[in-house]
Amino acid sequence: MTATNNPLRFGVNIRRPGFAEFLTLAKVANEAGFDTVTFSDRPTENNLEAWTLATAIGVSTNRLILTHSTLNVPFRNPALLAKMAASLDNITGGGRIELTLGAGAQEGHFRSYGIDLGSPGERFRRLRETVTILRGIWASSPFTFEGETIRVENAEAPPRPVRGTIPIWIGAGRPQMLRYTGRVADGWLKNGGWPESLEELHGLVAEFEAGADRAGRDPLRIRRALNGTALLAGSRAEAEQGVGAASGQRNVTPRGLLGSPDEILETIATYREAGIDTFHLQFAAQNATEQMRQFAAEVMPKARALVPA
Length: 309
What we know:
This protein is of the alpha/beta class. It has a single domain, classed as Luciferase-like domain (TIM Barrel, Alpha-Beta Barrel). It is built from 11 helices and 12 strands. The strands form 2 sheets. Strands 1, 2, 3, 4, 5, 8, 9, 10, 11 and 12 form a 10-stranded parallel sheet that branches. A two-stranded antiparallel sheet has the order 6-7. The model has no long low-confidence stretch (mean pLDDT 91).
């Protein structure tokens, strides 16, 4: 298990119910040099709908990659999702859309919307078949496919993506899903947020890389991302206190990129060596815009200088 060959990426994981505040943070991220903005796809929670929000942010910024953490497959017909993704890719100029797909986990969310989530095995099959349909429609239209959970017949979804296809990431945390992700995906997002330990991460990466190896793929070329909290402060202890005060959860130890710039750079280097190349960060402080600008100025250039582009 070694560090990937991919350039480091830093993204912002924004959780704000109001569009004006969300847009402000996204524009700061765009201007400061962050790579990605991610959206939550949990319709029952106090967030704007994920795809609508991605569209609005996409046309209001000019360089951020747009993705989700994660886009839950049961909510959308895959053939229509292929057209939605290709449409937004064309609207934003091409190359700015990456689909991070999830099988779905919060059963109550789906039940309340009248959607049958199914067993873990059924969810896994639905996700696999969705990936097949997305790539099939982008590559060859009309496209016909009959799976165990989804069927499409002579499906067409013009226009095609600007570059012919769109990268597909998968949110995974269990062995079977990790191995599948290694076999087929362009990127992996660890489910459940920041790992509790490096040992946990090593085990997940090993499963993911084993799947890639068995498929004859170079696992080091596949992107790997973590969601975490970010806060710059005088020390890690001070940052942890700040996150607790901001969240009202003083007895919970936050995980992510926390502390002084030097401490954060050490953390980045450690997780880079463990195989991570992408960090999606939720800035916890009330002064999130100032935190984001400081992080972009004091952390990102030094971190990227340590890694070949």
